[in-house]
Amino acid sequence: PRARDSKMPRAASFASALDELMGKERDVPVDKRVNRVMKFTDDEIDKYWLCGLSPYLLFKNTRSDMGQWDKIQDDKCKETWDALTQEEKDSHGYEYDLMRKLEGMVSDLDKTINRNKEKLVQDNQYGKIQLSKETLVQVDALSAQIKELQARSQEAGENGDVDASMAMVKECEALTAKREALENPQFPGKEKVMDVCEICCNFMSNTDSDIRKSEHLAGKQHVGWEAIRTRLAELKAMNDGAGPP
Predict the structure, then answer these.
(1) Element (H, E) at 106
(2) Which residues is 196 bridged to in the sheet?
(3) What are the Cα distances from residue 77, in Å, to 26, 53, 134?
(4) Are 99 and 244 in contact (CB under 8 A)?
(5) Which partner from 5, 75, 164, 176 sits 20 to 30 angstroms from 122, CA to CA?
């Protein structure tokens, strides 16, 4: 018994030394350890984030949401990464991977932007507001009334009935204003030009209010895609325009 007792402190001391050397979680599977010191090369670390931008974090709960992303953003790893020389960073290839990822995303979005612009042209909506079928019926009816009044006004004028002619001219003006209000309810009398944002693919118009424009520029979609395009340009400019190796 005494011999066993004398060995126990030695075993505890040896375990303590192992804890200090390898960590208390040395026997826990790596992917389940809680207190281990992470390295930026670990699979769990978000390499895109290390390189300045993780696209998966930009669009949460938006139509550009890229789905679940379980990689870790560790500040200590980021500090270690930032302290590396450019040559050391190049040896890992993380910046190259980020550039290729962003290139694919921007290419896909630009294709969507071009398709949406083409659709606006094909639907005859590039420069017009989209109207419901009910509103189009009302607009067509008003156009017919205006055309008829214009003809009657001209006829009355030719027959010397100036008062009747002028009365019908005023009625035409009132109907025209009503038609314009239907065609462009927010800014009657001003043509509404539809377009697609070159940065984020959102639809815009020249009649958007200042608040609407501010919301667009400050929205997750626009801010996120602007950040992506900026970071991609920075990466492509590396090494005299050759990009990261």
Answers:
(1) helix 94-122
(2) 203
(3) 20, 15, 60
(4) yes
(5) 176
What pLDDT score does 129 carry? 57
- Strands 194-196 and 203-205, sheet pairing: antiparallel
What are 98's two structure tokens?
């980020």
59: tokens are: 């669009």
**What residues contact residue 147 under an 8 Å CB cut-off, 6+ apart?**
none
Between 56 and 33, the more confident residue is: 56
In the prediction, which pLDDT does 14 show? 63
Dihedral-angle region of residue 131 (phi above 0 means left; psi in -120 to 50 means alpha; beta otherwise) = beta
Task: Give the pLDDT confidence score for residue 197 in this predicted structure.
Answer: 93
Beta bridge partners of 204: 195
The string of pLDDT tens digits covering residues 38-60 is 999 999 999 999 999 999 999 98
If residue 149 lies in a helix (H) or strand (E), which one and from where to where? helix 133-158
Q: Is the pLDDT of residue 31 over 60?
A: no
> What is the pLDDT of the chain when averaged over all its residues?
83
Judge whether residue 216 has pLDDT over 60: yes
39 in Cβ contact with 197 (< 8 Å)? no
Query: For residue 27, what pLDDT band results from cuts at 50, 70 and 90?
Result: low
**Pick from 217, 220, 172, 204: which is nearest to 57 by CA?**
220
| Residue of 69, 16, 71 whose CA lies nearest to 43 | 71
Which amino acid type is present at position 190? Answer: K
HSE-up of residue 127 (Cα within 13 Å, Cβ side): 3
